[in-house]
Amino acid sequence: MKIVQNILNSRSDEDGNFFLVLKKILGFNPKHLDIYRKAFTHRSANRKDAQGNPVNYERLEFLGDTMLSTIISYHLYKEVPSGDEGYLTKMRSKIVSREHLNELGKDLNLIAYINSKISKDSFGDNIHGNLFEALLGAIYLDRGYKYCERFVYRKVIEPYVDIERLEGKIISYKSFVIEWCQKEKKTFRYEVYEDSGNESLKHFSVKLFIDGNVISKGRATSKKKAEEQASKRAYYALQDKMG
Amino acid sequence: MKIVQNILNSRSDEDGNFFLVLKKILGFNPKHLDIYRKAFTHRSANRKDAQGNPVNYERLEFLGDTMLSTIISYHLYKEVPSGDEGYLTKMRSKIVSREHLNELGKDLNLIAYINSKISKDSFGDNIHGNLFEALLGAIYLDRGYKYCERFVYRKVIEPYVDIERLEGKIISYKSFVIEWCQKEKKTFRYEVYEDSGNESLKHFSVKLFIDGNVISKGRATSKKKAEEQASKRAYYALQDKMG
Q: Which residues of A fall within a CB distance of 8 Å from B62?
């Protein structure tokens, strides 16, 4: 806290705000704000550096794309010792799919911080994934490979990468939970409430009760996703019983 | 040297030999010989682990391929600040081309250490690139990202990656040197001699003389490559004059 305060004191208000926004997204202290500023700059802003080179997120996106691919590859290598090269390649492309990246960028609400001459409403869906990749590139340049890897674990792998689900063994954790409760003659209910917190994006929080006890919680940008997250957590919490 | 001796003493002769071979290829001490053994094991050897999973280099190749791509991407990002995403992608695919990887594996003579039921002569050219990628995967698992990056710099980027040449601005350094000498009215000659050293692969060493003075040296697995390497070094040594 003291370090943050010192950094804030030595910067302008604008820098201080950006620092806090980043710290919240990243989960650690960013060192070089300029790199992150680039990661949020769209080409329409027409920024140039002293040498006349365009300053926008596109080059960082190139870097972040390959970083993500490498980190996911290593995770799959470790987690699936029985998977051959073809299997690992197929699983990786599911995880780093355009659709999935867009979802990740959207969940972090990265578009809120974009510097662009174009209105936010007129971007297509890919802007979310592009900003997410650019952010990974920026993290690598700012803090190196390990920080980038940790961020990917926290924001991509832990919440979303589920090998059983990717393999199609489990399509929906919610239906899995429901079937299990019916088979075991247990009652269940999902208690959902809208919650915006301090964020500009609306979030949904959900508690999953089984036989009247809270088994797990979920929080996401849609009711469906929050329920699925709570169900997934319940699945792991109860794995022995459900096995 | 003392450390190496201790490691050697504590291992079998076979391990000791493999350790020394690896140390020479890698330029550092390998820690987990098993990982490297896997990197040299072809599927035809039919090795399996205790769980029945196949043990061969194919999964390591998957890992090495993405590591190489990431390390080259970062190098290009740094070195070509004016290159946009499309340019960086194009340059990367030139550097990590199948042909180039095969050359790298061949130069390190990796096939000499392969464990396979198939005769070495019956492999196609791709075996060289596959072994090179698997070796990168093994380095990452054994010593982490930084060691892998340093190895790629020493074995790929420093000797082979030349952005001006990849851009097609310079096709051959040898013809560049010859033209320059003719224009500047200087004499030149390449002095080549075959040299096998301790390696099983034949090497060629070359000295480039300009006006009777040794300007640069080269060493490679063909006369042509050694001359090109010496010419490239001369190009950089004389860059101010040649500019």
A: 73, 77, 85, 88-89
Q: Which of B53, B63, B88 sits opposite A81 (nearest CB)?
A: B53
Neighbours of A90 (CB within 10 A): 13
pLDDT tens profile A182-238: 888 999 999 988 776 666 667 889 999 999 999 999 888 888 888 988 988 888 777
Q: How far is CA B128 from CA A59, B3, B27, B46, B109, in A?
A: 32, 31, 19, 20, 8
Q: b/e for B190-219, b at 16 or more Cβ within 10 A? A: bebeeeeeeeeeebbbbbbebeeeebbebe
pLDDT greater at residue B10 or residue B27: B27
- For residue B108, what are the domain limits? 2-163
Distant-in-sequence, close-in-space partners of B224: CB < 8 Å, separation ≥ 6: none
Pairing of strands A213-220, A188-195: unpaired
Domain's final residue, options B163, B181, B204: B163
> Does the interface predicted TM-score (ipTM) exceed 0.90?
no
Same domain, A77 and A29: yes
Which of B110, B143, B163 represents a domain boundary (last residue)? Answer: B163
Residues of B with CB under 8 A from a CB of A: 49, 51, 53-54, 58-59, 61-63, 66-67, 69-70, 73-74, 77, 81-85, 88-89, 137, 140, 145-146
DSSP SS3 for A210: strand
Q: Is residue B168 part of a domain?
A: no
DSSP structural state of residue B113 = G
Same domain? For B76 and B112 the reply is yes
Q: Tell me the C-alpha distance between A144 and A156, whole Å.
A: 18
Please state, as a whole number, how many other Cβ atoms lie within 10 Å of the Cβ of residue B235: 21
Question: How far is the C-alpha of B117 from the C-alpha of B47, rounded, in Å?
Answer: 11
Residue A144 region by backbone torsions, left for phi larger than 0, else alpha for psi between -120 and 50, else beta: left
Same domain, B128 and B182: no
Q: What is the tally of helices (H) and strands (E) in chain B?
A: 13, 3
- Cα B215 to the chain's mean position, in Å? 24
